From TrEMBL:
It comes from Methylobacterium jeotgali. It holds the Pfam family Methyltransf_11. It comes from the Bacteria. This is Methyltransferase type 11 domain-containing protein. SUPFAM superfamilies: S-adenosyl-L-methionine-dependent methyltransferases.
Length: 193
């Protein structure tokens, strides 16, 4: 995505933690998707994995959902719109139990050797909504750019099914919101019963 007039937060000492747009990323903000997910899955709790400054967690909270925001960048822990917990997949997974794990623009920053911690963090949710960068997609510390088939296989091994109809619905709603990442590569998974 082209960012004109948006300041990027990147920390050269910890590139594996990725970066984010200061004051929120307009290409990831998806209020219609949030409303749909709250209603569709009767959400009571969620984990925003890679929350940046917490804008999406705050939006879920405004919809009455108990939200947990997690991010790797120390700056985002101290400069946010929603209380945020620090996480680093090179050290450990997040451990929680929630209805939804929301994870936008994180997967491509996770090196293969730390994939287990990342997937275990995603598996905190009954439902997972994630995005991923595509092969060849440029970006800050993009080290794991794979196609949808790869992520479907990885998440399926963790006990989830890709919900195709829900994925397509989320992508259509994201398109309406201008949430380009979700519209392009959003994948919704439900835990296999």
């Amino acid at each position: 995505m082209e960012y004109q007039g948006i300041v990027s937060i990147e920390v050269p000492e910890t590139p594996h933690l990725g970066g984010n747009a200061d004051h929120g990323d307009p290409y990831s903000f998806a209020p219609t998707v949030v409303r749909h997910l709250v209603e569709r899955f009767a959400l009571r709790s969620m984990l925003d994995l890679g929350s940046g400054q917490g804008h999406t967690a705050a939006l879920f909270h405004r919809h009455g959902v108990a939200a947990i925001a997690c991010d790797g960048l120390t700056r985002n822990i101290h400069d946010n719109v929603f209380p945020t917990v620090q996480v680093d997949f090179t050290r450990a997974p997040v451990v929680s139990a929630v209805d939804l794990v929301w994870c936008q623009e994180v997967a491509e920053h996770v090196e293969e050797r730390y994939l287990d911690n990342f997937v275990r963090s995603l598996a905190c949710g009954k439902v997972i909504l994630m995005t991923h960068a595509l092969p060849g997609q440029h970006g800050y510390h993009h080290v794991n750019c794979k196609d949808a088939g790869y992520w479907i296989e990885v998440i399926s091994r963790a006990g989830y099914n890709c919900a195709v109809a829900d994925t397509n619905r989320v992508r259509a709603l994201a398109q309406e919101d201008g949430a380009a990442y979700l519209a392009r590569t959003g994948l919704l998974f439900t835990r296999a019963r």
